[in-house]
Amino acid sequence: MAPPRSCQLAALLVICACTVAPLAPAAAASVPITTCRSFCGNIMVDYPFALHPGCGHAGLRDLLFCINGALMLHLPSGSYRVLDVDYAYRGLTLHDPAMSDCRALDRTPGGRGNGFVLEPWREPYLSPDPDNVFLLLGCRATSPLFQGFPDRHLPCRNVSGMGCGDFLACPAWDDYYAGGRRPPGDDAAYGDAVGTGAPPECCAVPWAAIRAVNVSRLECEGYSSAYSLAPVRAAGGAAGWAYGIRASWSLPESNRGFCGACRATGGACGHDMESHADLCLCGDWNSTSNCDSSADAAPSGAAARSPDAVAAVRWAVLASGCLPVHFWCRIDITVVARLEIKLVVDCGFPF
């Protein structure tokens, strides 16, 4: 039996309702491109970094946060104030407030300061510079630093002309030993190789030697860090060093040229939040290459459901006068490409 004329009208109104009902945005295109480049205080945050999910490179995601106008970097070892981002030389300058320097020592038996520890998956993308020295202070003889190197302490050495010999001459040590502590001897920088075999008061190491500066796990009382941006030795010894952590970032070879091509076509450089693959954010759609190539449109995932469209269908049926009829309806809307939308309406009436 043919359906009542009123329900035929309902079917026609369904098509009209779905045409005018607003579509739900696809999940993959939910990042406004204007938010990817931003400022925190006076520091610009740009690719490969970002403050918003989906922007920047996936290897540096969930790393920078703007807190009360201060740009902070978060790692498993703690939080660091970002003092500078050098995009030309791919460098970050970080500050740890619990770190010792030439003017003041910050040491406790349980360890003071964050050190520097990265997640294993992030290590290919971020690491301290080779010219950055970590000075570990007051480490116990049982520290992993000294195991396997009896009476030699091979990990301790100068890095880019910076070492414990100069650091132990800082004024901060005069204040530290003013409280009755025993001043360091001539071998304090490298340990007492003869006699007691005591561990060094200070041990300077490069990042590559230990790959993780965990102050408490290394059984040290504190640490300092300094970096060199020039090949010449700093005047004034350790008092003239630049204190802080200088880290550099690198991106895989497969990423070379991707962001430049994306920006040249009006896009913003980002990544897929599930697969972590590179994405060019093009406003209301995403591309795996650039915004001029709709053939490379990124899939939007599962088809989006539009609650507004379903509500419009129900009102269409009510307006037709087909009130006694129970009905069901499913609407699937998928963004296929930049300007193409696939709409599937599947409705049923139990006549």
TrEMBL record:
Ranges where the Wall-associated receptor kinase galacturonan-binding domain occurs: 36-95
Signal peptide (from-to): 1-28
Superkingdom, natural source: Eukaryota
Pfam families registered for this protein in UniProt: GUB_WAK_bind (PF13947)
Record keywords: Signal
One GO cellular component, as annotated: membrane
Topology class, membrane: Single-pass membrane protein
One Gene Ontology molecular-function label: polysaccharide binding
Subcellular location: Membrane
Protein name, per record: Wall-associated receptor kinase galacturonan-binding domain-containing protein
Organism encoding this protein: Panicum miliaceum (Proso millet)
